[in-house]
Amino acid sequence: APSVCFSPAARSLFDEPLAIAVQGLDPRQQVTLRTSLRDETGELFQACARYQAGDAGDLDLARCPALPGGSFSGLEPMGLLWALQPQKPFWRLVKRDVQSPFLLQLEVFEGHEDPPGRLLAQAQHERVFLRDGVRRVPVREGRIRATLFLPPGEDSFPGVIDIHGLGGGLFEYRASLLANHGFATLALAYYQYEDLPQEPTELHLEYFEEAVNYMLQHPQVKGPGIGLLGYSKGADLSLAMAAFLKNITAVASLNGAVAVTVVPLCYRDKTIPPLTIDKQKVKVMDSNIIDCSDIVIDPFQAPGNQSLIPLEKAEAQLLFIVGQDDHVIKSHYYATEVCKFLQAHGKENFQILSYPGIGHCFDPPFFPLYSIGKHPIFKKQAVLGGELRAFSKAQVHAWPQIQAFFNKYL
Questions:
Q1: Which of 122, 145, 254, 354 is the most buried (most CB within 10 A)?
Q2: pTM for the full predicted model
Q3: pLDDT (tens digit, 9 = 90+) per residue, 245-280?
Q4: Is 86 exposed, middle or buried (0-12, 13-18, 19+ CB in 10 A)?
Q5: Helix axes 233-244, 205-217, angle to 10 degrees
Q6: CATH number of 135-409
């Protein structure tokens, strides 16, 4: 009878490749493979692909290309994971509880029909977020609300603070995955979590400074400096930290602006106003989906713009990771312009990784594409950008680059 073989067999880290094969098929037999995964709210994500077994009745996804007609085609060993799409429109795959795995189900059906033919084999596999021995430590020190992830062992590790974008709450999935690779990683909440402000009218850099000091005083964090991994709003906060605070050694900015956005930022006696937004420039597309690509006033076209972060003051190494199809923040444009500006100031502490076909959302490998979803400001369905295959390739490329960057400078 046909059987499914996974390698690793029972469980694997969510950001690591998974080898998939089917044995015991008839020679040259046509089959459809379907993966299913339910998120923590019970919403279903699925992908399917059509294959033909080899002469010996075996099917190895690393050697056998998918035929046209499924979620993808061509030689894509991980296609059945990166092509997962929600059955509920515009739904994003989010991991809240990193201590429990996602359960991946794989089914093998006879033929290439739709709906699928007879079920020939099925198997389950756990996709986990914590390697054995990684410790999850809730942090409630002073004002800080966060979770610290420590790699196995008693050594000290390079320290990274992970700051998410607008939406509030505490997201741990990226920090937990980074800790598996040898970093002491602090997932930091900054609003809409426990006793933090619900809808802040301003943000204070002193709060983030407290988090830096907490990390530097931790016995398992290797000094003398800290790394920052910021996404979207978290990226402009990280860049501001590099400009104004001490002991920031390396910043990876994921699809961020290089200016303060949405909420004023205060530090000591200084307040930086957010970039101006022109709501008249919101475009309404089909099905009332909005496109906000052009709503932010260009800070580089306004001389002396008060919202720009004074990055010429930053001593840290800066890595800008940007999507060329970002419809929320023109992150590619911002990164290019700010690097010209830094160069003019005699600085060489920057590099850009720019990806075509990448929208605003940028997660670790194998998270599904989220190209239309809730806009962080307008709370309506909006074009976020991105194309499926390019997105999957960029995630797989960027993730080790981020780790190499922090390893080099921390």
A1: 254
A2: 0.97
A3: 999 999 999 999 999 999 999 999 999 999 999 999
A4: middle
A5: 70
A6: 3.40.50.1820
